[in-house]
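Homework-ish question, so no full write-ups if that breaks the rules, but can someone show me the predicted structure for this set?
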Amino acid sequence: MSLSLRLQHDLPDLKLDLNVEAPPGVTVLFGRSGSGKTTIVNAVAGLVKPMAGRVAVDGWELFDTEQGLWLPPHKRRLGYIFQEGRLFPHLTVRQNLFYGKWFTPKGARRENPDKVIEMLGIGHLLNRRPSGLSGGEKQRVAIGRALLASPRLILADEPLAALDDARKAEILPYFERLRDEVSVPILYVTHSAAEVARLATSVVALQEGKVLRHGPASEVLSDPSVAPAGVRAVGAVLQVRVVKHHTDGLTELDAGGASLFLPRIPLQVAEELRIRIPAQEVILSSKRPEGLSALNVLEGTVDTIRAGEGPGAIVSVKTPAGSVLARVTRRSVEALGLKPGKSCFAVIKTVALAPQDVGGHLRGA
Amino acid sequence: MGWLGPAELEALKLSLRVSFWATLVTLPLGIFVAYALARWRFPGRQVLNGLVHLPLILPPVVTGYLLLLTFGIQGPLGRLLAEFGIVVAFRWTGAALAAGIMAFPLMVRAIRLSIEAVDPKLEQAGATLGASRLFVFATVTLPMILPGVIAGAILAFAKAMGEFGATITFVSNIPGQTQTLPSAVYAFLQVPGGEAAATRLVVISIVVAMGALLLSEFIGRRVAARVAGS
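A: Not a homework solution, just the prediction itself:
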């Protein structure tokens, strides 16, 4: 289930031009607001007609301007999860969920409604109307509604942006389950590096309508030249495995032979997950630190140093766990004598790993 | 209704029949025109908007005279319809036509306002789920604008009940055929001693108008509450 995407479109203040072949799984369009993410998704959905391009899901063409092919939105077999939910206010949750089912050919109804309702935990809401639901509940119903249309492609346009942190943490796992349990490709729009780190099979980093970089999340996010959502979004993504739950509330993780300690992660021993370490939560030391309260120290060698316009610099350190990024000042770079090839220690404070930066179990990718 | 004379009763029944059909027949067209004006951008949109509003701003007698020129026995459309055996001039159907046209702008305005209040994003959501435009209209737009449609219909009905100028110009004032409630009031006031009958009809007019208004408020509120989902 792959997605082929070629688009050219002029907006008043933006020129879109991209050509992406996305592998199966979750393809995340990542960039600042105004980088053209939503226009791309709307073009795939048929809500915006681009000047030129072609979009195909698994070889099935949704439009191709060269052939003059343009399927109207209702013939594209999509499940679009909008930022604001867009549930029908005059219908019950049940009627909302089954709205798309009327138009799905009988043979194409893949999703079992009971299973979807159970997975999303919305069984007790079926007879309610959307106005009586919380933000998180609404978004769960919106996910179910898109899924029960048995789509060939799921579109999600910043589905968490309108929610507070607690609700985000509530909804994100459902998208992980979508990725892992439903074999439908997902095109997911966000400006949050944490969501990219948790969900993405591949990331398309966008800047002003153009593809800055396309690749696996761990590569794109740890490339300091990308940072499409600003320097705060720069951070390394590490693939780790749960080793042990300690009695003092910490979970020990194995990252390529190195040990990391995090506050208790609700996963089984030996399960794999991704963690994101924001660059600004990492400090560097030229000697092995002693007498420091931070638990996580990774030894490595400096790979690249990238000075920005301000006083800061992003240092990429090769460690056994993977590349770790640190945001330090240029003055510190000089004081420590950092240069490519020099060995150093990356110090990560345990608390720096925010819960929403920790992804659940992961297949493939 | 023993206290009403046969002529007065006839005028009341005729008015109800004229207004009922005027409203019923124009309603689908009113919804369509309101939707087109609210949602579509097409050349001639402002012209259509102007045409719809014309009966509201023209003197009714002018509208009636234009109807007579068009649908009269000698008029182009009148002659065409006569070929099919349909004559509207000086018939109750003509009164319904005049009432429908006069009430049309009010109906369209009310419905258009309610369509503009529906977020087009909801209609887009319906389309992405596989619903065709017509189906989206029937399952999303129409239920959500129902309060506006009902308000528009009742407003049009009340306007049709009171229509006088265009009606009397187009189809005259024939008892039992085209003498609606307002025409009858006018006729009774022209003859000595007709004041009592005229007064009774005036009271009925007030009751019908107030009833229609209250009913529309009541239904509108109930439907709005249902549509809003509370």
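Now go work out the reasoning yourself. Hint: Chain B has one domain: 6-228.
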